[in-house]
Amino acid sequence: MGAARAGRAAAAPCRLQRRTGLGKSKTRSRSAGMAWLAAYALFIGAMPFIAAVDHDRRGREFLLEFSVALGFIGLAMLWLQFALTARFRWVAPGSGLDTLMQVHRQAGISAFALVLAHPVLAIAANDRFVHFLNPGHGVARAVALWVMLIALVAILGSSLWRKKLGLRYEWWRLAHAVLATGIVFIGLVHVLRVGFYIDDPWKQALWSGLTAAAIGLLGYTRVVRPLRMWRKPYRVTEVRREPGSSWTVVLEPVGHPGMRFAPGQFAWVTIRASPFSLEQHPFSFASSAEAAGRLEFTIKELGDWTAKVGQVPVGTTAYLDGPYGAFTVSETAERIVGIAGGVGITPIMSILRTWRDRGDRRPAALLYAAGTLEGMVYREELEAMARERGLELTLLPREAPPGWTGPAGLPDEGLIRGLVERQGTQGTQYLVCGPPPLMDLAERTLLAAGVPASAIRAERFDIA
């Protein structure tokens, strides 16, 4: 894939600062995350209580009331799903795309489970509610509810097993949006038609407004945002082959100054298609943040689209949406340490190139693992950084070539612990990116070695 992800953050020059600032930054990040989590829980938890205002519920079965509460909570969570995928940088600041997409995924599964539990428990409480699904007691209502239930099962199943089902990401994404829109719309109509709780005009206005806002966010993502991209096109000026079945695509802005980004961030890239196309792919910037007028993306041949990236003609128009991502170096970090595997080197390379171009005086180190020495992207440039800028470079080929005197094989706990012993646990920013086994090993080892969790930034590429 290249370097796929999303999130937010602002570009900031890297400078050596007091370590006390690092602690404040960590505290702010944790506080912001807790605040967003609390706001999320408060919003979804408030819905059944708001619905119950001014209603006499005496004589109604507890199981029925419980099923209604689950339905309201599930619908509220579905509203928020649209916000989580609208690519707003201010949503949960400090989180990367993989984190935000995991929240979206888990919240979606929970929301669908709650909405499906609503009719099951309602019927279990009182079998008269089975008539809601019987066309003989109302064709329009029954058809709408059956469509909603089938859509829930379809969107849940396709999300969990998309790759096993062989569904193309672009078409799954379109179906996902259409089904989700239909579900929340039918959910609103169902709530309004039942009317037992939502019979006051102000409640009807609130539920209708929140549903419209959620669907409106989809319109913002699919219409407003592409329009902004369309006004700032880019042109492909170079496509060059890299080791390890990878390609670097170079883009230059057309009629505008380009995009400012923080090293380690990414953008959604559209090449050879309209910005309204479903063909949008998230790739990390590989270039230095000091070169906003010449953006580089190194992309590995892994999928249908990436397998053809080397065939993109020079002069092709491209569009970018970004920058996003929290896989960045804190201004106050005193040392920078990267742990990369395979194409996970891409965002770390952007960080190191920026470190070099800004004349950053902070010590930097990199552990880079790949299948072979010849397959390591940027190897010669990294070796030049080691000679000229003092980068502590450890190359780890899985298959050592003849005469190789460095370490070889798979990354292990000893190598990572040695890195920590040399670079320290306080004031050091650790950046981890690569295949899941490497990331799991690195995060586990760093934490066991005493590195604070807040000093580790890790981002996984597999978000779809």
UniProtKB/TrEMBL annotation:
<feature type="transmembrane region" description="Helical">
    <location>
        <begin position="63"/>
        <end position="86"/>
    </location>
</feature>
<dbReference type="InterPro" id="IPR017927">
    <property type="entry name" value="FAD-bd_FR_type"/>
</dbReference>
<dbReference type="InterPro" id="IPR017938">
    <property type="entry name" value="Riboflavin_synthase-like_b-brl"/>
</dbReference>
<dbReference type="Pfam" id="PF01794">
    <property type="entry name" value="Ferric_reduct"/>
</dbReference>
<feature type="transmembrane region" description="Helical">
    <location>
        <begin position="138"/>
        <end position="162"/>
    </location>
</feature>
<feature type="transmembrane region" description="Helical">
    <location>
        <begin position="34"/>
        <end position="51"/>
    </location>
</feature>
<protein>
    <submittedName>
        <fullName>Oxidoreductase</fullName>
    </submittedName>
</protein>
<dbReference type="InterPro" id="IPR039261">
    <property type="entry name" value="FNR_nucleotide-bd"/>
</dbReference>
<keyword id="KW-1133">Transmembrane helix</keyword>
<keyword id="KW-0001">2Fe-2S</keyword>
<dbReference type="InterPro" id="IPR050415">
    <property type="entry name" value="MRET"/>
</dbReference>
<keyword id="KW-0472">Membrane</keyword>
<keyword id="KW-0411">Iron-sulfur</keyword>
<feature type="transmembrane region" description="Helical">
    <location>
        <begin position="204"/>
        <end position="223"/>
    </location>
</feature>
<keyword id="KW-0479">Metal-binding</keyword>
<dbReference type="InterPro" id="IPR013130">
    <property type="entry name" value="Fe3_Rdtase_TM_dom"/>
</dbReference>
<feature type="domain" description="FAD-binding FR-type">
    <location>
        <begin position="229"/>
        <end position="330"/>
    </location>
</feature>
<keyword id="KW-0274">FAD</keyword>
<dbReference type="InterPro" id="IPR001433">
    <property type="entry name" value="OxRdtase_FAD/NAD-bd"/>
</dbReference>
<keyword id="KW-0408">Iron</keyword>
<dbReference type="InterPro" id="IPR013112">
    <property type="entry name" value="FAD-bd_8"/>
</dbReference>
<keyword id="KW-0812">Transmembrane</keyword>
<dbReference type="Pfam" id="PF00175">
    <property type="entry name" value="NAD_binding_1"/>
</dbReference>
<keyword id="KW-0285">Flavoprotein</keyword>
<feature type="transmembrane region" description="Helical">
    <location>
        <begin position="107"/>
        <end position="126"/>
    </location>
</feature>
<keyword id="KW-0560">Oxidoreductase</keyword>
<dbReference type="Pfam" id="PF08022">
    <property type="entry name" value="FAD_binding_8"/>
</dbReference>
<feature type="transmembrane region" description="Helical">
    <location>
        <begin position="174"/>
        <end position="198"/>
    </location>
</feature>
